[in-house]
Task: inverse folding
């Protein structure tokens, strides 16, 4: 019952990563929020908060890190199971 209070239309949202590094649209929303926060934190020193290139850079860094983590997460079980073949 508690989960129905989160997300859009009472549906809990979560990032989902597939076997070939495909990601759900919820990952896009999460990356945008994190990139906004990182950009605001980084640019607050300079007094500027609306830099699209800085936000795009932060988003690209997030996707690269998440993609690598997804590949490593799927590679580990395959390497562990190679003795079963």
Result:
């Amino acid at each position: 019952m508690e989960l129905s209070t989160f997300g859009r239309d009472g549906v809990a949202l979560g990032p989902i990563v597939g076997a070939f590094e495909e990601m759900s649209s919820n990952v896009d929303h999460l990356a945008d929020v994190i990139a906004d926060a990182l950009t605001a934190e980084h640019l607050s020193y300079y007094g500027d908060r609306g830099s699209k290139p800085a936000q795009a850079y932060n988003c690209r860094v997030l996707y690269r890190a998440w993609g690598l983590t997804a590949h490593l997460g799927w590679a580990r079980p395959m390497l562990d199971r190679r003795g079963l073949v």
About this structure: The first helix runs from residue 25 to 43. The chain has a mean pLDDT of 79. Helices lie at 25-43, 52-80.
